[in-house]
Amino acid sequence: MNSTTINVLVIQPLMDELAKRLSDRFICHNLYEHRDIDHFLSQHGKEIRAVATRGDVGLDAELMARLPNLEIISVFGVGTDGIDLKSAAKRNIIVAITSDTLTDDVADLAMGLVIATSRQLIIQDKFARSGGWLTASPTLASKVSGKKLGIVGLGKIGKAIAKRAAAFDMPIGYCDQTDQKIENYHYFPSVIALADSCDFLVLALPGGEENKGMINIEVLRALGSKGTLINIARGSLVNEADLIIALKECAIKGAGLDVYDNEPYIPEELLTFDNVVITPHIASATTETRINMARIVYDNLDSYFTHGNAITPINLNK
């Protein structure tokens, strides 16, 4: 049993190893275990000095407001769209993420989905397993090398995806808040213009209200019948009703999706399309990366309460 007086609120279940390290170091309160959250907060809300949460869960404004002595939020992931960053900045609450550790895995999966959709790996797997090859030839798929890749959001993950795509001799286009003037990369001022130019439209930008539903029917029709949507970012970026319409109309060639608007629930209609590859939000789900992410979540809290500073805080004043 630890001797600390520092209370940490854990919003949703974390990896077992991380949960144990946190409980050995701090007094941990698992919010997800409390049926009467109002009662818990009225009794213990003022005691909470830190929050540990996942990137897909965050910490909403209402809950944050009920933690008057909150000093730091340590996030298992890089997504902060579920956190009220304006309130955090106003209250000088530190927000720390597991930056730089999941970039490679997410970029790897993005390219994996590009290959899986283009080469029809799921369809070909089913065909081979079913015995169809005994009586018929496999269908022809599409080449990956040399196709045009469009990236929405050229941050660290976007750049890592571009680096991998370059090895496939894929011309790189991107849409971002500014033209980063990168040699051999073509900047597009709008998502529609980028979609109209590429064979694969890859989403690698944050979620949040400002980007919610940005991939709508207009963007999908611009992507066109030879274009494929790849989403390894946030499900909220895509208007899923419009995506289903586009797939039904064959307005796009297909999609590779790792994230969804109402996870873990996936619209049933999306599951019916053979030209859609579905994965269950596994972009960073490798043993090596998850262990490293857990270490950073712990280290951010331990460093802050030991030395007064987190290891990987984000800039809330930019």
Automatic annotation (TrEMBL):
Record keyword NAD present: yes
Domain named D-isomer specific 2-hydroxyacid dehydrogenase NAD-binding: residues: 111-283
Pfam families: 2-Hacid_dh, 2-Hacid_dh_C
InterPro entries associated with the record: D-isomer_2-hydroxyacid_DH, D-isomer_2_OHA_DH_cat_dom, D-isomer_DH_CS1, D-isomer_DH_NAD-bd, NAD(P)-bd_dom_sf
The entry's keywords: NAD, Oxidoreductase
Presence of keyword NAD: yes
Domain D-isomer specific 2-hydroxyacid dehydrogenase catalytic, residue spans: 8-315
Domain of life: Bacteria
Family: Belongs to the D-isomer specific 2-hydroxyacid dehydrogenase family.
Identification of the protein by name: 2-hydroxyacid dehydrogenase
Lineage: Bacteria, Pseudomonadati, Pseudomonadota, Gammaproteobacteria, Enterobacterales
